[in-house]
Amino acid sequence: MENQNNVTEFVFMGLWGDKQMELLFFFLFLLCYLAILMGNFIILLTIIRSHLIEQPMYYFLCHLSLMDLCYTSTVVPRLIRDLGAARKNISYNNCMTQLFTAHLLAGVEIFILVSMALDRYVAIVKPLHYMVIMNRWRCNLLIFMAWSVGFWHSVALLLLVLNLPFCGPNQIDHYLCDVKPLLKLVCRDIHVVNILVISNSGMVVVAVFLVLVASYILILYNLRTHSSVGRRKALSTCSSHVMVVILFFVPCIYIYVLPAGSENKDKEISVFYTVIAPLLNPLIYTLRNMEMRNAMWKVWSKMAHMKFR
Q: What is the CATH number of the domain that holds 19?
């Protein structure tokens, strides 16, 4: 059957139908976005301009902050604009671009979190060989692999959606172009497509989450042999990672494991990984990390001294 596509643009239904509620959240999400930009920019600048960039954990954290900046910038500015607009429309091409970019950056972020878990595992289980195993070449390789996996995941998803016929209606019950709300608009049976989407996104997220959980269980098991001071320091670092993983993965699992068409709170739950997680990540990694706080104080004191000298 020939693929027919009569839709040239989509219209977002947004998070809420209440105009007053949307105006309130316009200012709330604007403040959140500015806080995300500032928090992650501070982390990036602090790590790049201090000795922390030499340590694998902070090297990965630098990349994680960059992904948070890029990912939120593909979603939140349009969400803010739409909250204040009478008509929330997006062209077909721009919708496909947002779909590809969001899944690319989210895929990269997921595998950066895996790299951070691997880094903590090696640091705790094999501390004497840590700097040999987690050398800069391997760190760069892990980042390259994260981008490669994210790219092929998003390409597969984009090709799947591009081959689907959209005949109308064109109203997306969401605030961004994602695969599940788009599938609800397809004018053909999507049973096979649902299975492919769950395999491409849902099962991958679940598998990665289980690997991360297993790695942290192994880390906790191996902490038995460490001193009480070493245990406290390791637990403080790992608890920050665990909080970030839960904030990102649990909403993703809820959304992508269930098939399109099922009644759920996808658009409300997705706010956790599009806005809340990138907002809290800088706080989690700075407030609970003395080394990061000290580096921030030194870098920003030095910059202030140079400015007023």
A: 1.20.1070.10
User: How confident is residue 262, by pLDDT bands cut at 50, 70 and 90?
Assistant: low
E-only strand ranges, the chain: 9-12, 89-91, 171-172
Does residue 32 contact residue 280 with C-beta atoms inside 8 Å? no
Residue 171 to residue 13: CA distance in whole angstroms:
6
Quick check: 4 and 165 in contact, CB under 8 A?
A: yes
Long-range pairs for 30-37 at CB < 8 Å and ≥24 separation?
30/80, 32/76, 32/275, 32/279, 33/72, 33/76, 33/77, 33/80, 33/275, 35/279, 36/68, 36/69, 36/72, 36/76, 36/275, 36/278, 36/279, 37/69
The per-residue pLDDT for range 29-38, each reduced to its tens digit, is 999 999 999 9
What radius of gyration, in Å, describes the C-alpha atoms of the chain?
21
- For residues 55 and 270, give the distance between their C-alpha atoms in angstroms, rounded to a whole number: 32
Confirm whether 64 is domain-assigned: yes
Tallying the residues shown for the chain, one arrives at 309
Q: Can you give the pLDDT at residue 99?
A: 94
Residue 246: closest CA among 215, 277, 217: 277
Cα separation, 62 vs 177, in Å, equals: 27
Rounded to two decimals, the pTM is 0.88
Q: What is the residue range of 106's domain?
A: 9-307
**Residue 112 domain-assigned?**
yes
**pLDDT for position 5:** 67
* Contact (CB, 8 A) for 236 and 37: no
Question: Please, what sign has the CA dihedral across residues 94, 146, 35, 176?
Answer: positive
Contacts of 253 (CB under 8 A, 6+ apart): 202, 205, 206, 209
Q: Scanning the structure block, which residue is given the tokens 């000795």?
A: 51
Domain count, the chain: 1
pLDDT of res. 1 = 43
| 2 belongs to a structural domain | no
**Helix or strand or coil: residue 189?**
coil
Specify burial of residue 229 (Cβ count, 10 A radius: 0-12, 13-18, 19+). Answer: exposed
- Residue 151 placed within a domain: yes
